[in-house]
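User: Predict UPF0056 membrane protein's structure from this.
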Amino acid sequence: MVSIIESGTLLLALLNPFLLIIYLVDPMKKLDQLQFQKVLIRAGVIAAIVFCCFAVLGDAIFSTINAEFASFQMFGGLIFIIIGMQFVFKGPTAIEILQGEAAHISGAIAMPVLIGPGTISASVVIGKRHDPLLACGIVVIAVFASVAIVILLKLIHDYVQVRREALIERYIEIAGRITALYIGTVAVEMVMTGLRSWLMKV
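Assistant:
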């Protein structure tokens, strides 16, 4: 039971709903609660399916395309470096692919917001720790726990914004730029980790 909780907590911590809400500030402002819930749930379903595939198949997914996981880490790191730089210069509305119509942004939320090298690595680890069915159950619960927390934060945002709109705007602006430092640091670490792993196998 302890191992199950640890596995679920690992993925939930990497999904980090309190960081996700900063990524999603633009759709959060533009969509009403029902639309936001639908978009986020669809994105959660996409992410859960991908994570379950990695939990069940593990490193075999990369071996079938004759690629190393280190390559995925480096590419994912580069994507997040670009996002981090956009956050620095543009603030929390930096991820422009999240600024379209509600019907088209679920996939953009799933990748790269939910699905990344960290969360995929965690899914592989969970798959190695548990039987496939249990691993998939842990993944699904962690993803939708994160989705539920983000939906709750959207409710709180909408309630508080009516009374403290200027304060909320200022908080989001500051939090978004602080987030950029975190994103950039993690992204560079992803690239360096992938590079070290690749060099060790050369």
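The chain is about 85% helix and 0% strand.
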